[in-house]
Structures are given as structure tokens and as C-alpha cells.
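Task: sequence design from structure.
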């Protein structure tokens, strides 16, 4: 028995019966390493990771490997989803040394936590592509005994090279003035921001796959925030058509491909091929939340029911399979069933005929590309690639029958951790769905998840926890938890007009700037100032599978400043945008959410202030806002009932009197307010270019 049996992480519990003497990350393991004068073997992964399972079966369940590790190392297991800061530190080293990264992440450390060997998946024994874990472990153990000083020097050099420097293009916010910014060009932030957005759009166009959508070659990842940026860019450049084409082609191709689950809804992690045909089958909460937002926003622009349908299927997948009893959202589902990758998802024609009958089965197989030859190891992953005719309603009903059959045929492992930032993305998606579609269950889901966080993931001082599982909240919230949750709170205000959400958003912004901001060099650290000290304090700006905490902070601060009008948040927003612009300037590709924040800061900010004798916003206005979504508009709703609470957060609203009857509308644009009136139509959403 190792030391993982009392942990809450599903990933750690998967290894609790390994013959390897695993420890969770903590002082006990490192103190033992010092005491016994042994190196640390660190393995980082997550419970729905296919290659983590492969390495576990090959090596960590193996007595030979366990004997080598137990005799020569102190072994530590880390769940990257509940300890992202640890993963960020050692993944940075892996990427610097090997040029790439991924999970499982494998590292050997000194008892002082300094890495001197890094890699990802290794087979037990050497093959024609990779060295074997057994050989690696034996060689390092020998070097530790015979040539330790060189290992220590190498580790120290590695840590200094990776961490003990600020990026060369990172400029102190105090140096970035209007008249002396960005070095020799003397360029203002506005001009630089516009140039960066255009440069990024060109880079996305160069990397765009015009045949199959997406960016780059296989494997292809959805990266919805690339599409957020391009949608904003198309609006900013007054309908820039190529940007919208890239969005539409990608969204359509993904929804037609096998990466989308046509039977049960939702998207898998990524596609192994350029056509989006064969996925890596794990499904993650954050992918589906972000993709739902992308489809919703594109539907808002185009009003094409295809994108609305995909958004609904994705959101309903979350509500059907990833929601807990109190409204919390779980992390995701495994790629493997009964030890076989993708077994849950694929079909043969014979199997379909057995469920639907031959006539309807043939129709279903034709609609979803299920053939005798198959497209994945002799079986077929359902897809709509190359299909032009719409799916018949009767065939769609058969999807529900196959969905129920599939759930009984084999099971998927569910990672039932609750990660706060991922829940915040999902709250944001559900709230947007209500605002755009007007479906009450999405509003209710967003509200329940928010109540869960306030009830279960907040300490007595109102600090946030990162993870909850089985009644236990643990680990200090990181930057992402505060920043993304802050964005979600503002979206919740936008669908309820309850000032409690804006009030909490201000609290989270205060905590975020106090605990995470680097006032000397700009930007925000991933970990709080009073969090556990690691060998480095990461500051992430790259927008990878998820937007970085720094990009999310920029969006949060900008939107909070626009709603509240407070100088504190306007100044914090400008500091952050200047910092990110400096980071992004050499190569803006890969910073799509940061670019979205920068672009939003350049777009006009419009406030529609509604001061009403009624307790509810008028239905015609709600319908108008749903039909005419516009990212630069904030709607504030003041009534006699909420006036005090709202004015505590938005102090300038004290000057807006409540009428005796009806509603008075005030439209303020770019710091200038129009004459008030009782009619809102025609006052908002003018056509204009923002980056001209």
C-alpha cells in the first residue's frame, strides 16, 4: 500500500494500489528524500488521460519498475488539474529542454525540488523511437550515486535558464507612457494594439486549413479562443470577411466531424487527423464550455440554426453527463472504456441494425458514415463529413435510442472533481446560452453552480479554493480561478441584473490584484503571494488549451471597469493590457484571448442605463438584446428595490433618479451621454468600424 489511498483526486486514487510507493506532493515526501539521500521521481497526469493509463499499465503496475523506484527514489504523483501550478513549473522545464510537452509528465528532481531530467511518456523498455523507463531509472540512480554533483549543477543551470529571467519584451508598466512607449517606435498602446490584431489575423490566415478548417496540421485542437478573437476582429474591421470565413469553416467542420459526438452531444479533446474525423476520445468540461460559447456567439452573428443546434447539444451534454447533484460541474470523461480507447463511441453496421432494425439502421449508417470497412480499427466513429443533405428528424430520434443503448453497452470513467475555473467557464457558457437563446434551464444551471461555489469552495475569509471533491475543498485558488470566475459573475449580472453579482465581482478583483499582481514587472502570477513556495512562481501568458490567467484577468478587469466606471479598475485594466501587448508584440499568434482583451479595450464602450419604476427589465428590450448581441454594450438596470446595492458598486448611478412610472433610458457612448428617453430602439448597435 502506498500513500495515496486517502487522497481525493480520482487520478491519485487510480494509483493507490500500485506497487510503487507513491506519495502525494508535500513536505513528507521531500523530507524523506533528504533523509534517505534519494532523488525524487515525479509523475504528473490526470485521470482521463489515455497515455497516462498506458504508462500506468506498462510501468507503475509492474513489480520490476516498482522495485527500481522503491529502492532508488521517492516517488510523487501529482494531478495536474488540482495542482496546475506544479504542472506549470515542470512543464515549462520540459518544453524548454525537449521542445514539446504533454502528459504524463515525467521528471527527476533533487530533494530541493530542482529538476535535472524531464520527459513525457516512456515505455517500460526501449523501442525504436524511445528509451525505456527501466533503463532511464537505472542510469539516473547510478549517476546520483557516482556523479551527483554534475547532476545538481545541471539542474541548477536548468532552473536558472528557464525561470530566473523576465521575458525580454516585458516592459514595466511605468515605462509605457503615451509618448514613450514600446521603444524606438514611440507608438501609443492604441496604435500598437491595432497593429498586433492585424498581424495576428494575418498569422491565423497563414496557418488556416482552408479545406478542413482549424489551424495547422494534425493533430488538430479546437482552441475556441482563436475563434473568439476572429469573431471580434471581423466586427472590429467592419465585417472583415476572411476572419468570419475561418470561424465558420472551422465550426462547421468540427461539428460534422467525429470529434463531435453525434449520438450524445459534446466534443472530444482533439482530432488525430486533419479532417476532424477520429478524435482522441476524452471529453473535458472546459473544451465543451468554451466551444459552446463559440457556437453561441457565431449563432448570434449569423442566426444560422445549425450553430444554435450544436451549442444546445453541447450544453445539454454537460447537463446530462457532467453535472452533480448540487449543480456543480465535473471535470470530464475518459477516452478509454474497459481498457480500450474509444470503445464507448464507435459502432459497426451490424450493431446498429440490431438496435434500429435493418431499414432504419441502413438509413442511420448512411447519415453518419458507419460502414463495414470502418474508419477506426475496423469500427466506425459516427460523422457527417461530406454530407450535404440535412439529417432527417426520424434519424435524429434514432440517435436517442443509440445513446441509451451505448450507455448500457460499456461505461466511461467520470472524473468527478470540481475545478473552480472550469466551473466558471461553464457558468459563463450557460449564462450566455440563456441571454442568447432565452432557455430557462441554462440560467438555472448557471445560478446553481454559482451557489455551489459560494457554499462549498470559499473559506471563512472569502478566499477561493481550487478543487472540491466528496465534501472536501482543497488547494488555494490560482489566478485563473479568480479571473475566469470574475468574468462569469459579470455575465450572471447581465442575465439577472442582480447587483449581488457585480458586488462579488469587485471582491474577486480586489483579491486578484492584491494576491497575484506583479506591480514591479507587470502582469499577474499564477499563484497567490501567500501560496506554497515552489522553485519558481509561474506567470503564464500563452493561451493554450485554455486561455491563460493573464488573458482572463485582462478581460475581467476591462469588463468590470466598463460596468462600474471606477478609476481603480480602469487603471488596472490599462496596466494589464499594456503588459500583455508587450508580451505579445514579437509574435501575437498563440495569444488569442489576450488579443481579444486588447481589442475589446480599443472598441467603443457603450452603456445603456435603464432606470425603472418597474422591478423587471422590459420584455421587448430583453428580446432586442438577445437578437442583437454586441460585445461592447453593458446594460445597467436600476430600480427602487436594488438602488442601494447597485449604487454601492456603480457609484455614478446615484445621479440617475427613478421615474414615477415606466423606464427612462440613458445611452452613454465613449464617455458621452445622449439625451434620456423612454424609447431604447434605434439608440444602440450602430454600424461602424473600430480599427480604422
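Answer:
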Amino acid at each position: 500500500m502506498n500513500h495515496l489511498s486517502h487522497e481525493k483526486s480520482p487520478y491519485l486514487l487510480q494509483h493507490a494500489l500500485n506497487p510503487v510507493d507513491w506519495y502525494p506532493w508535500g513536505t513528507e515526501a521531500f523530507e524523506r528524500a533528504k533523509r534517505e539521500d534519494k532523488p525524487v521521481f515525479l509523475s504528473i497526469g490526470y485521470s482521463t488521460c489515455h497515455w497516462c493509463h498506458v504508462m500506468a499499465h506498462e510501468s507503475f503496475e509492474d513489480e520490476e519498475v516498482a522495485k527500481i523506484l522503491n529502492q532508488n527514489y521517492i516517488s510523487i504523483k501529482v494531478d495536474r488539474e488540482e495542482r496546475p501550478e506544479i504542472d506549470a513549473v515542470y512543464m515549462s522545464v520540459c518544453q524548454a529542454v525537449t521542445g514539446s510537452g504533454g502528459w504524463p509528465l515525467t521528471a527527476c528532481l533533487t530533494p530541493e525540488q530542482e529538476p535535472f531530467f524531464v520527459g513525457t511518456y516512456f515505455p517500460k523498455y526501449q523501442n525504436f523511437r524511445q528509451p525505456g523507463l527501466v533503463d532511464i531509472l537505472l542510469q539516473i540512480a547510478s549517476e546520483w550515486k557516482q556523479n551527483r554533483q554534475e547532476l545538481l549543477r545541471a539542474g541548477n543551470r536548468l532552473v536558472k535558464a528557464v525561470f530566473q529571467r523576465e521575458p525580454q519584451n516585458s516592459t514595466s508598466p511605468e515605462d509605457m507612457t503615451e509618448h514613450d512607449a514600446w521603444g524606438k517606435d514611440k507608438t501609443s498602446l492604441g496604435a500598437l494594439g491595432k497593429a498586433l490584431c492585424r498581424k495576428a489575423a494575418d498569422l491565423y490566415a497563414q496557418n488556416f486549413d482552408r479545406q478542413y478548417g482549424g489551424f495547422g496540421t494534425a493533430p488538430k485542437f479546437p482552441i475556441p479562443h482563436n475563434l473568439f478573437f476572429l469573431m471580434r476582429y471581423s466586427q472590429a474591421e467592419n465585417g472583415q470577411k476572411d476572419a468570419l470565413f475561418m470561424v465558420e469553416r472551422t465550426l462547421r467542420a468540427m461539428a460534422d466531424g467525429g470529434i463531435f459526438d453525434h449520438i450524445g452531444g459534446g466534443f472530444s479533446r482533439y482530432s488525430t487527423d486533419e479532417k476532424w474525423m477520429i478524435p482522441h476520445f476524452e471529453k473535458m468540461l472546459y473544451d465543451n464550455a468554451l466551444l459552446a460559447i463559440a457556437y453561441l456567439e457565431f449563432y448570434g452573428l449569423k442566426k444560422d440554426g445549425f450553430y444554435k443546434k450544436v451549442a444546445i447539444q453541447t450544453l445539454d451534454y454537460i447537463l446530462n453527463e457532467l453535472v452533480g447533484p448540487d449543480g456543480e460541474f465535473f471535470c470530464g470523461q475518459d477516452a478509454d472504456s474497459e481498457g480500450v480507447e474509444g470503445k464507448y463511441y464507435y459502432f459497426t453496421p451490424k450493431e446498429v441494425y440490431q438496435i434500429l432494425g435493418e431499414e432504419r439502421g441502413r438509413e442511420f449508417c448512411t447519415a453518419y458514415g458507419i460502414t463495414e470497412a470502418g474508419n477506426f480499427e475496423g469500427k466506425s466513429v459516427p460523422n457527417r463529413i461530406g454530407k450535404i443533405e440535412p439529417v432527417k428528424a426520424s434519424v435524429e430520434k434514432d440517435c436517442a435510442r443509440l445513446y441509451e443503448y451505448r450507455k448500457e453497452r460499456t461505461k466511461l470513467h467520470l472524473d468527478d472533481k470540481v475545478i473552480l475555473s472550469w466551473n466558471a467557464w461553464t457558468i459563463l457558457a450557460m449564462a450566455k446560452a440563456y441571454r442568447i437563446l432565452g432557455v430557462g434551464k441554462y440560467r438555472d444551471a448557471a445560478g446553481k453552480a454559482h451557489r455551489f461555489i459560494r457554499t462549498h469552495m470559499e473559506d471563512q475569509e472569502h478566499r477561493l479554493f481550487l478543487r472540491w471533491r466528496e465534501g472536501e475543498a482543497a488547494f488555494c485558488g490560482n489566478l485563473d480561478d479568480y479571473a475566469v470566475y470574475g468574468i462569469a459573475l459579470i455575465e450572471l449580472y447581465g442575465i439577472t441584473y442582480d447587483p449581488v453579482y457585480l458586488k462579488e465581482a469587485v471582491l474577486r478583483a480586489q483579491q486578484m490584484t492584491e494576491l497575484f499582481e506583479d506591480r514591479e514587472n507587470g502582469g499577474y502570477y499564477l499563484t497567490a503571494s501567500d501560496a506554497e513556495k515552489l522553485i519558481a512562481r509561474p506567470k503564464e501568458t500563452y493561451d493554450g488549451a485554455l486561455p491563460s490567467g493573464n488573458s482572463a484577468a485582462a478581460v475581467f478587469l476591462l469588463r468590470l471597469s466598463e460596468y462600474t466606471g471606477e478609476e481603480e479598475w480602469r487603471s488596472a485594466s490599462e496596466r494589464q493590457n499594456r503588459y500583455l501587448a508587450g508580451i505579445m508584440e514579437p509574435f501575437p499568434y498563440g495569444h488569442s484571448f489576450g488579443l481579444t482583451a486588447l481589442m475589446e479595450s480599443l472598441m467603443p464602450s457603450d452603456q445603456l442605463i435603464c432606470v425603472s419604476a418597474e422591478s423587471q427589465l422590459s420584455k421587448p428590450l430583453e428580446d432586442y438584446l438577445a437578437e442583437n448581441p454586441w460585445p461592447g454594450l453593458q446594460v445597467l438596470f436600476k430600480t427602487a428595490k436594488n438602488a442601494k446595492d447597485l449604487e454601492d458598486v456603480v457609484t455614478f448611478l446615484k445621479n440617475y433618479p427613478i421615474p414615477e412610472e415606466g423606464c427612462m433610458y440613458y445611452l452613454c457612448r465613449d464617455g458621452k451621454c445622449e439625451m434620456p428617453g423612454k424609447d431604447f430602439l434605434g439608440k444602440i448597435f450602430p454600424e461602424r468600424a473600430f480599427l480604422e
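Confidence is low (pLDDT under 50) at residues 166-187, 685-692.
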